[in-house]
Design brief:
Number of strands: 9
Low-confidence stretches: 1-31
Largest sheet: 9 strands, antiparallel
Keywords: Signal
Number of helices: 5
Order of helices and strands: HHEEHHHEEEEEEE
Strand content: 35-45%
Strand order of the largest sheet: 2-1-9-8-7-6-5-4-3
Oligomer: single chain
Mean pLDDT: 85
Radius of gyration: 24 Å
Distance between the termini: 79 Å
Structural class: alpha+beta
């Protein structure tokens, strides 16, 4: 009986070991993408708490911009477009080529370009990071197209070099429904 118990225990150990998921291979690829969503969540919390005075200009269809100075900004909604360009998701990383360049001031420019066959929304993303890894500037182009809708947006976000806090941002775009006119718009905000 002891002989069968030993075989049974050995068999259970083998089955248990076989059912465990292997550890993912160690990779530094995950570290190569700036966590834009985490950065924006932190900025939203700070901006919502501080409610800074903001100078905001909005223009549509080439009209003169409407300029407004206000503290009443819904930061969750306002910065959503920038979260859409975050490539820090494993499912997206395979769709982009990446190039890094150290600039004269010591900052690092990181450019992501969508592969030709990829169907990802972000066509291009360029981040400029301080030597300490803080975001200094973001530039991106987003494109979305289906049978009833087309959208093309360029976004830019600038951060204070000393604090890393958002100092300004701009969104320019065009969208068109299949049975409608194109709508061109621009939003520019300075904190």
């Amino acid at each position: 009986m002891a002989k069968y118990t030993s075989f049974l225990l050995a068999g259970l150990l083998l089955v248990t070991a076989a059912c465990e998921r292997p550890a993912p291979p160690a990779s530094d690829k995950a570290d190569t993408y700036f966590d834009l969503t985490a950065y924006l969540q932190e900025q939203k919390r700070e901006l919502q708490a501080n409610q800074p005075m903001v100078l905001k200009a909005v223009a549509t269809q080439g009209q003169a911009p409407e300029i407004k100075e206000t503290t009443a900004i819904d930061w969750e909604d306002e910065l959503t477009v920038f979260e859409q360009v975050d490539l820090n998701r494993p499912s997206l990383q395979e769709y982009y080529t990446k190039q890094e360049q150290v600039l004269e001031d010591g900052s690092v420019a990181v450019e992501y370009t969508k592969l030709p066959d990829a169907e990802a929304q972000v066509a291009y993303l360029r981040l400029r990071l301080s030597p300490e890894g803080r975001l200094l500037q973001l530039n991106a182009r987003l494109q979305d197209e289906n049978i009833i809708f087309f959208s093309n947006r360029s976004v830019q976000l600038d951060a204070n070099a000393q604090t890393g806090d958002i100092s300004s941002y701009k969104v320019e775009g065009v969208q068109k429904m299949v049975f409608g006119d194109s709508l061109r718009y621009m939003v520019e905000t300075n904190l």
